[in-house]
Automatic annotation (TrEMBL):
The keyword ATP-binding does not apply. This is CS domain-containing protein. It comes from Cladocopium goreaui. InterPro entries: CS_dom, HSP20-like_chaperone, NudC_fam. The lineage of its organism: Eukaryota, Sar, Alveolata, Dinophyceae, Suessiales. Residues 8-105 form the CS domain. SUPFAM superfamilies: HSP20-like chaperones (SSF49764). Transmembrane segments: none annotated. GO terms for biological process: protein folding.
Length: 109
């Protein structure tokens, strides 16, 4: 089983966030089709594999709404990307800083 760092290096996972969601951009093989992808998101966990190869299977640092989270395959600049959007669960605190995630994975917190 690959570590998160090894999977990140192999698939070039990049992530960003807004107040409402987390976006992961994963570089995948140009022939990747939706049938090749297994995607599972729970309130605190994200699991993705492509053609049986684990991309990630880890606990998120904060909760997301699985029903409002999604993924697509897209082509950009000659590269194939899997773009994952995770809808953040609003924290009870109204502070803007409480909506920002310090990192993606709980293991990195």
């Amino acid at each position: 089983m690959a570590s998160e760092a090894e999977a990140d290096a192999r698939h070039e996972i990049k992530w960003s966030q807004s107040e409402e969601d987390i976006t992961l951009r994963v570089l995948v093989d140009t022939e990747t089709k939706k049938e090749d992808v297994k995607f599972k998101v729970l309130r605190d966990t994200l699991s993705v594999s492509i053609r049986g190869e684990e991309i990630c299977d880890a606990q998120l640092v904060r909760e997301v709404d699985p029903e409002e989270s999604s993924w697509v395959l897209d082509n950009e600049g000659g590269q194939r990307l899997m773009i994952i959007t995770l809808q953040k669960v609003r924290p009870k605190s109204a502070l803007k800083s409480a909506r920002q995630w310090p990192c993606l994975w709980k293991a990195d917190a």
